[in-house]
């Protein structure tokens, strides 16, 4: 940690994902308290890490922490994050930042007014191999990006309060925006509601960009196997990030090319080149980044502006699903 003493963080939500956030802040020497709607769960983690189990009002009213990390249900993000910012706390909140763009804008404005850090948990922006992929794109290693497609598939965990688009797609949308560096012009969605007529279980999200590039995100929590794979098609090379593969095989480059023979295009295959970087836990990097942002007073990599761009696409995808026609999301300037 750069600068002064490590900022102290209270973790709210110790469940399926929150327990990992609790562990990482504890191992970084930053955990000051835990909170969970299930008192027995909160007490168990409090004993495990030697910190008090407190209610949210106790956390916000006290001086035991400088920041609060929320892994609560998405519907509570606006209220919880807003209360924490008004209490003078820096905020780390899991994605999505809010359920509407106006709510997200209000939180961003509140963070600016209170001069507090507001960081959103877009985990893959802290994955060393994803960061290397971003670098390769910026360096021109892949040439011009023409198409990106991502599959995030699994069997469960089925949600009842949000659909598969809002639950699964934010990670991939955030990565695509990181690669493209711009918002799409149009979003179109085809979705299937299988278990509940009001909640999409499977969805294809298609995006068109101003430069002619396209992107597609396929998400499902009713798939027979797990797959988390992003493929980037460039004019010079292709890249594949496979988050389910072993570390040394997660990011691979293919220098495939197309040659014209007798006026006809023919694909020429190349052997894969695996990209190697030092292995580090993405969530540890993300939590450490939040602490650095507090200590240094700098904007986090996944700040409210980045979160609003993802939120705008999610909103557009929802409208496109409901209307059956392409929808233009808000531009970065509008956000």
Task: Record keyword descriptors for this entry.
about 325 residues, alpha/beta, eight-stranded mixed sheet, five-stranded parallel sheet, about 35% helix, globular
Walk me through this protein's architecture.
The chain is of the alpha/beta class. The chain has helices at 18-27, 39-49, 56-61, 77-86, 101-114, 128-138, 164-180, 282-296, 304-323; strands at 9-12, 31-35, 67-70, 90-94, 118-121, 145-155, 186-192, 202-208, 214-220, 222-234, 238-242, 251-254, 257-261, 264-268, 272-274. An eight-stranded mixed sheet has the order 7-8-9-6-10-11-12-15. It has a five-stranded parallel sheet with strand order 2-1-3-4-5, with helices on both faces. Helix 1 (18-27) packs across helix 8, helix 4 (77-86) runs parallel beside helix 5 (101-114) and helix 7 crosses helix 9. The mean pLDDT is 94.
Describe, in short, the structure shown:
The protein is of the alpha/beta class. The protein is 34% helix and 27% strand.
Q: What is the helix fraction of residues, given as a range?
A: 25-40%
> How large is the radius of gyration?
21 Å
Assess the beta-strand content as a share of residues.
25-35%
For the biggest β-sheet, the strand order reads 7-8-9-6-10-11-12-15
Regions with pLDDT < 50 over 5+ consecutive residues? none
Secondary-structure content class: alpha/beta
Alpha-carbon distance between the two ends: 32 Å
Q: How many strands, what sense, and barrel or not for the largest sheet?
A: 8 strands, mixed
Q: Total strand count, please?
A: 15
Oligomer: single chain
Shape verdict: globular
Number of helices: 9
Mean pLDDT: 94
Run of helices and strands: EHEHHEHEHEHEHEEEEEEEEEHH
